[in-house]
Fold these 2 entries.
Entry 1:
Amino acid sequence: MDALPSFDLVRPRTLAELIAARAEHPDSRLLGGGTDLVVNIRRGIVAPPVLIDINTVAELRGIKADAHALEIGAAVTLSELAAHPAVVEHYPVVAQAAGHIAGPTHRNMGTVGGNIALDTRCIFYNQSEWWRDANHHCLKTTGEICHVAPKSRGVCFATFSGDLAPALLTLDAEIDIAGPAGRRAMPLADLYIGFARQDEPVTETRGDGKYFLSLRPGEIVTAVRSRSTPGLRSAYDKIRIRRSIEYPVTGVAVALRRDGDTLADLRVAFTGTNPRPVRLAGTAELCGGALDAPVFAGLDALVRDQIMAMKTTFTPGHYRRRVAGVLARRLVERLFEA
């Protein structure tokens, strides 16, 4: 599309006004930085009649961080989060993940809530309108099959690529949610269970790239929270084709605790590989001894088993999975020896 379609812009001043606006306009989209949404509107992927600007809601703008706990409002910009002194000191994996997102101008605009709830993408979805039409569209838009996995029986394999989610998953983060029925909290991991058909929870753990967020109609993420774990070391890194702006081939967050020469705790999470961010299951079984070859072999086995190898980007899926394993190993070694 050459120009943006017309839409109305609503600017609520309070969270209550924001919830009311969402209820009044069920087909609306939330506008934070617009770095992903506006591009999708221009491409004709979505055409919301109303955009609701969250940046004027003061309740969504705060950061609280110290040695005990972390709380981040959904409208906090990625630049603010990456540079916050207490976040850098006590929750480095979060600050590093925020600092790795896109380029500096994107981080100045993009928000925490937008990155946590980032739309999934693949080479058949994030294209121009004429390209999608020439390829008969895909399941995530108006098509009937997922071109990544044509035999998937109605499941979309578009990939989640937000950087903050894996970092926060290693910290056992929770999110605060507000909607017409009130407020609630849940583990961040549960946000990505998704819905099979907008109102039916997905039963398979890999989720679905089309209905990948388990938010009820009218609900929004207002904040993300985590408590500090004494002795936990953490870091984030990612591989991408270009050093800035590009979405990750894979992003890896690692948090671990060392007790003398013993690996006492290990948490590893990925983005850019599956329809949801993945925190590896089974890492607890690798702990309790030295960081040695069997631990790394076990880590590689977990990556091979849980990281998707389908081609959803311009890099082959098997390459992405191998890169994920190598990057995880490097971060584990670095943190253990730090």
Entry 2:
Amino acid sequence: MSAAGHAPLDVYFALMEASARHLLRFEERHALRTDNSVADNVGWLDFSHALTFGHALRSQCARQPHLWPRGLLQLAMFVGRNSGYLDPDKFAYTAIRQWTVTDETPFHERAIASILDHGVGQPIFPRIG
């Protein structure tokens, strides 16, 4: 997609969709490699960071719209970098179908229960002093 002439939010949504699809298609064997260069160290954080950056970008640009061009360029850089680490045998529609939630209410209840009670009896607090 050429971004020229498109509204910033249109470009943003296209890049966020690409980032989300990339997260579904990440080939985890890249994260487990030990024979690669430092520049090729990649993991789940590289893929999730595109989404968290994108969320922050939209919040910031709602207040300061002049930042859209630079922010969208950075988001596009995430998409471009991550493109080389996708599973070539998993297409987006297959990944979406694989991760589709068919039981939304029970899924939501299980997710909230595991988020709120993840088996840790007491939180760990840093010791000061």
